[in-house]
Amino acid sequence: MAVVPRIWCSFSKGVFHNNQFFTKSSNLKSFHTSLSVFSEKLFTAKHEWVQVDGKIGTVGISDYAQEALGDVVYAQLPDVGTVVKQKDECGALESVKAASEIYSPLSGKVVEKNVAVEETPSLINSSCYDKGWLFKLELTNETELSELMKEDKYKEFLKTEESH
Amino acid sequence: MRLLLKIIRRRSIPGCFYSTSSTTVARSIYISKSTDIFTNLALEDWLYKNFNVTNHELLMLWQNEPCVVIGRHQNPWIECNFAQLPYIAGGVKLARRNSGGGTVFHDLGNLNLTFFTTRKNYNRKRNLELISRALKKSFEVNSEVNSREDLCISDFKISGTASKLGRTTAYHHCTLLVSADKDNLSLALKNNLGECTKTNASKSVKSPIMNLTEEKSDITVQEVMTAVILEYGNTNDIKIIESIDDDIFPGVTNIKNEYLSIAWRYEKTPKFQITKSINFAQNQDLVILLTVEHGRVSSVDLRHKNKDLSVSKDFSEMFDSLIGKLFSEEVLSEFDMLLCGLRNSQECKSIVCDS
């Protein structure tokens, strides 16, 4: 099994900047909880992210992707039980009259889709890394994880993309 | 693969390629001779999947016999005059396309243009401006691209746009109203069901439209096609596609059958709910909800004061008889009949009085 690096929480913006954080014992408790729950988000070159917890990978699209799409008005997500291979088409997001295909960043079986996003597609715009996740996969080939980028590498990648 | 495509014109235009930042991009134009919406959508999809657009862009020009084309995530029953389509213009077909956006009407007075590019080079505004330039140069017609990326003359739309973006390839397609039958168009897109329907499906934004012939009366579709070809220009590869079959486009028949299928056209409809109410005295509304999932009735529920009510065996059997049926005009009439039955029943009156 591939080793999934577990860092504290790559996207918890305020956590490390909040100095009071370390002085409050109640916060410290929640901090320990997040340590065991969250792993680092990994990114694809096509702007999907995946966060792995055990054998389950949660999939979404990056901030760069949601901004490029504009207001998402409809989310067609893969049904639970769908078996997907890495890079398979598995749904679509509609925004400003364009249907953009969703591709699975990893191989696996869909175990959950985000019903809240189906009801309120704008969650993808307002909270792409949290409430706007798309679906969860039970991973079948964890070696694929090594092809994905960590956040810092993805940020570097974005810079080269934008310069083209 | 045998590409038995007839080349209609070979024009040696100087600089038949254009350059982007570092690469040279060739351009081809395919003109479909089919006027069947399902065949043309299949060809478009085939090209999207098989034509290598890396350094080679493609424009497909096509026309259809009267049809209504809904967007990928739309509801056919609330976007068009569903029950009347067979009686308009000798029969209007209903198709669902693969791109986003709203519902459009096509007939032979309308020209469709599909611009295939890499996802990176996808640019709807650039394509629409190309059409606008063509109209200006050939007919002295002034048009402009509005904020919704539609082509307009004053405040009237002459073209509707939609697109599909894949991992590496994308297309932008648009209609161009030259001399379409506006009466048929209005009739085909008329609908009232939307008012009592709750859905997440993307809804069309209704806009006033006009034909190019209203600006300049003698314009023909053929002339517009020529104008666009000249402006897209920079190509010595213009092909008229006489026949669209598996010999030339392997697998295209399967794609066409997919577009024709009940599953694609109707069952792909996002979940929706039709609400009708029976008004008894003193604002005592009894609400009846018909839920349709994957195009089929999934439940019929009766509510009073936001609470679900159970009904007697007679009524529940009538409710059940609708479940599983593909939504249609008949289902809607049965639903309305059920509503009448409920309205007149003693049972309903007692439900309302008891609660």
From TrEMBL, chain A:
It comes from the Eukaryota. Pfam families: GCV_H. The modification N6-lipoyllysine is found at K97. Keywords: Lipoyl, Mitochondrion, Transit peptide. SUPFAM superfamilies: Single hybrid motif. CDD domains: GCS_H. The H protein shuttles the methylamine group of glycine from the P protein to the T protein. Belongs to the GcvH family. The glycine cleavage system is composed of four proteins: P, T, L and H. This is Glycine cleavage system H protein. It comes from Sitophilus oryzae (Rice weevil). The lineage of its organism: Eukaryota, Metazoa, Ecdysozoa, Arthropoda, Hexapoda.
UniProtKB/TrEMBL annotation, chain B:
Belongs to the LplA family. It comes from Sitophilus oryzae. GO terms for molecular function: lipoyltransferase activity. InterPro entries: aa-tRNA-synth_II/BPL/LPL (IPR045864), BPL_LPL_catalytic (IPR004143), LipoylTrfase_LipoateP_Ligase (IPR004562). GO terms for biological process: protein lipoylation. This is Lipoyltransferase 1, mitochondrial-like. Signal peptide: none annotated. Residues 53-240 form the BPL/LPL catalytic domain. Gene3D superfamilies: Bira Bifunctional Protein, Domain 2, CO dehydrogenase flavoprotein, C-terminal domain. Pathway: Protein modification; protein lipoylation via exogenous pathway; protein N(6)-(lipoyl)lysine from lipoate: step 2/2. GO terms for cellular component: mitochondrion.
